[in-house]
Design brief:
Strand order of the largest sheet: 6-5-4-3-8-1-14
Largest sheet: 7 strands, mixed
Number of helices: 6
CATH architecture: 2-Layer Sandwich
Order of helices and strands: EHEHEEEEEEEHEHEEEEHH
Number of domains: 1
Structural class: mainly beta
Radius of gyration: 17 Å
CATH topology: 60s Ribosomal Protein L30, Chain: A
CATH superfamily: Hypothetical protein, similar to alpha- acetolactate decarboxylase, domain 2
Length: 238
């Protein structure tokens, strides 16, 4: 029997490998879903923004559409885990800073990985999705310029966020990395800004980061990351 370990955050790839443009999909969705039922990521060539809820993967593309993803869809980067959220509080009229403060429960910072889930109504939501690029891939900064930004008001949906400690910036995004999916699939993507009208804030903490690397990818194996301005590029792109 395969017991689902809810204390593990599984991550395929690193955000650092996206910086120089290593955007090849190196893991199929069906393999990613063997490690969890909830998560975020992006497709090959930064093909949209992914959100996985209840074991179903969706892509918010640069045209503003939300699409179901096939089991053969490949990703260069993704976070996934088995959901076991505990309700923390209800939250209303809240900005990103308000949500961050509530999730940290009064602590000035956190040295732990955790995930935040907010289900409710949002009086404002601003997301982005990057258009898929083709080979030869450009850098993350160049590729991310070809993105679409979407805004809406008064939308119900789910905000899924992962918090990573500052020590791990480069492997992940230090602080919060959030994606959103509207209940009616009218909007989705990487979250740029929001205002929570009212919702339920739940939290799940992890004691283990399982970092999976694409060791069969020749470009990854050959690349010298010491030449990349990883931290600044990720901070600007995310």
């Amino acid at each position: 029997m395969n017991m689902k370990n809810t204390n593990i955050l599984y991550q395929h790839g690193t955000l650092a490998l996206l910086v120089p443009g290593l955007l090849t999909g190196t893991l199929k969705m069906k393999n990613l879903l063997s490690h969890g039922d909830t998560g975020i990521g992006t497709g090959e060539g930064l093909d949209g923004e992914l959100i996985i809820l209840n074991g179903i993967a969706y892509q918010a593309d640069s045209f503003g559409k939300v699409n179901p993803i096939s089991s053969e869809f490949t990703v260069p980067f993704a976070n996934i885990h088995y959901a076991d959220y505990k309700k923390l509080t209800t939250i209303a009229n809240a900005s990103p800073a308000d949500l961050a403060k509530a999730a940290l429960q009064g602590k000035p910072n956190s040295n732990n990985f955790f995930s935040v889930l907010v289900k409710g109504t949002f009086s404002y939501m601003k997301t982005r999705a990057v258009a898929k690029s083709e080979r030869p891939f450009s850098t993350l900064a160049e590729t991310a310029k070809n993105q679409s930004v979407f805004e809406t008001k008064n939308v119900a949906g789910t905000l899924l966020s992962y918090y990573s400690p500052s020590l791990f910036h480069g492997a992940a995004v230090a602080g919060y990395h959030s994606h959103f999916l509207a209940s009616d699939h009218s909007i989705g993507g990487h979250v740029l800004d929001f205002k929570i009208d009212q919702g339920t804030l739940s939290l799940q903490q992890f004691d283990t980061l399982e970092q999976h690397l694409p060791i069969d990818n020749e470009e990854f194996n050959a690349h010298d990351f010491s030449k990349d301005d990883i931290a600044n590029t990720i901070s600007q792109a995310e």
